Amino acid sequence: MFTSGDQVVSKHWTPILDQGRHYRARLGFIIMSTDLAAEADFFDMAPEGVAVHITRLATEDYTTNETLSRHIEYMADAAARLQPEAQPDVISYSCTSGSIVIGEDRVMAEIQKGAPWAQPMCLVCGVLDALQELNARKIVVGTPYLDEINTAEAEFLVQKGIEILDIQGLNLSTGIEMGRVTPAFWKEFAVAIDQPEAEAIFLSCSGIRSLEVAEEIEQITGKPVITSNQAQFWSCLRRAGITDELQGFGQIFSCAGLSLLPKGVVA
Fold first, then answer.
1. Where do the domains of the chain lie?
2. Which end of the chain is more exposed for a tag (fewer CB within 10 A), N or C?
């Protein structure tokens, strides 16, 4: 029994060590300070043995091309804060519109500067990876964004060889508003903007609650649904060598993503 004034002297113990709770892969995400959806989505999708590390990027709760462009100023610092001792396999900037406005190469260069141990990624790369995997070249797009951002996104996707049959935005300006749009609304919205010729439906924005209804929309429309968080997470998993087929989050998770796997990893 310990009595006040005693000196603690422990016995000699030999602890048993293993590879830790997250023995398969570690994924890092740089998300917006106003994002109400991404964090929960990532933890919902994380397979056993895969870590999700999050850091928040200081952002204004007013989303325009101008405010998005300023995210780059803090990117390297945010990447450096993502468990440097654990060294995540992949670190991704989790903002669709910001990835487009700033540019993928510039984003990934800053992440590499802050976290040279990790493979750099950004959300829009995951979207392009998913569309390519599904061979979806004709799509409709639904967003919460202002139309100035919708225009930039449409231009970006067209330049990547994607045919935009329609793009519709809710013209919301704050991340808090975006995160409060109900999943039921996103389901109705996606079905409303769908077109017979569309090969996929893309619901764009990491801060919206569309993942929860992606599979329901697929069942209604009979075509794949891509959401920002789902596509990004799928791509990051594959880039980290994790080939699990997750259930409940859309057709993309049944795809192996062979072109994304590290050398030596077999699906």
1. 25-122, 127-229
2. N
Which region, left, alpha or beta, applies to residue 5 given φ > 0 means left and ψ of -120 to 50 means alpha? left
* The residue type at 211: L
Q: Smallest Cα–Cα separation from 250: which of 207, 218, 220?
A: 218
For the domain made up of 127-229, give the CATH fold.
Answer: Rossmann fold (3.40.50)
Neighbours of 263 (CB within 10 A): 5
CA distance 53 to 51: 6
CA dist 259 → 138, 148, 199, 238 (Å): 21, 33, 21, 9
Burial class (CB in 10 A: 0-12, 13-18, 19+), 70: middle
User: In this predicted model, what pLDDT tens digit does every residue of 14-58 receive, in sequence order?
Assistant: 999 998 899 999 999 999 999 999 999 999 999 999 999 999 998
C-alpha 57/C-alpha 68 separation (Å) is 11
Given CATH 3.10.50.40, say whether it is the number of domain 25-122.
Answer: no
CA distances from 81 to 25, 111, 185 (A): 18, 11, 36
Domains 25-122 and 127-229 share a fold: yes
pLDDT at 150: 97
pTM, 2 dp? 0.94
3-class secondary-structure state, position 234: helix
Tell me, what's the pLDDT at 264?
78
Number of H helices, E strands in the chain: 11, 8
